[in-house]
Amino acid sequence: MLDHIDYSERAPVTLDPNTAHPCLILSDDLTSLHYSRQALSYPDNPERFHMSAEVVGMTTLGAGSHHWVVETESNQDWLLGVATFAVPRNREVSARPENGFWTLCFRDGEFLAMTSPPVPLTLSKNPKQIKVELDYNKGMVSFYDAADDTLIYTFSHTFKEYLTNLIL
């Protein structure tokens, strides 16, 4: 689980507090978060993730290219990428393309592209920052080591819905 996350791009990604799982503490400026083992008392609303500690960005990602950088250096468990707005929030679901997720994961010291089944990835080093790049028109979501722009993985899909940033 991400203990702390920071986003950066020309304009930082703003996290949507109405979607944040109760164990996620968002910063005042809504650009970073911390994981808490104790659930907070957030208002119950239909947008909120209840089954897994996720939050989405407030930005609608559609036509064109979008990119952002996520700091992962001090985190030993994370998942990040993009998701459709319609992803389930009140039940467990695998973060895979058939469920509206295009994500990269780091768990138990292993990098995975969350396909069906997940694809183990071999990286020469542990990236401190991951750049996520979405080319909506070309149907590509790519993940890079932000330090040297080394490609980690690319998903290809014909998107038919708007997307948003996703982290776990």
UniProtKB/TrEMBL annotation:
<protein>
    <recommendedName>
        <fullName>B30.2/SPRY domain-containing protein</fullName>
    </recommendedName>
</protein>
<dbReference type="InterPro" id="IPR050143">
    <property type="entry name" value="TRIM/RBCC"/>
</dbReference>
<dbReference type="InterPro" id="IPR043136">
    <property type="entry name" value="B30.2/SPRY_sf"/>
</dbReference>
<dbReference type="InterPro" id="IPR001870">
    <property type="entry name" value="B30.2/SPRY"/>
</dbReference>
<dbReference type="InterPro" id="IPR006574">
    <property type="entry name" value="PRY"/>
</dbReference>
<dbReference type="Pfam" id="PF00622">
    <property type="entry name" value="SPRY"/>
</dbReference>
<dbReference type="Pfam" id="PF13765">
    <property type="entry name" value="PRY"/>
</dbReference>
<dbReference type="InterPro" id="IPR013320">
    <property type="entry name" value="ConA-like_dom_sf"/>
</dbReference>
<feature type="domain" description="B30.2/SPRY">
    <location>
        <begin position="1"/>
        <end position="168"/>
    </location>
</feature>
<dbReference type="InterPro" id="IPR003879">
    <property type="entry name" value="Butyrophylin_SPRY"/>
</dbReference>
<dbReference type="InterPro" id="IPR003877">
    <property type="entry name" value="SPRY_dom"/>
</dbReference>
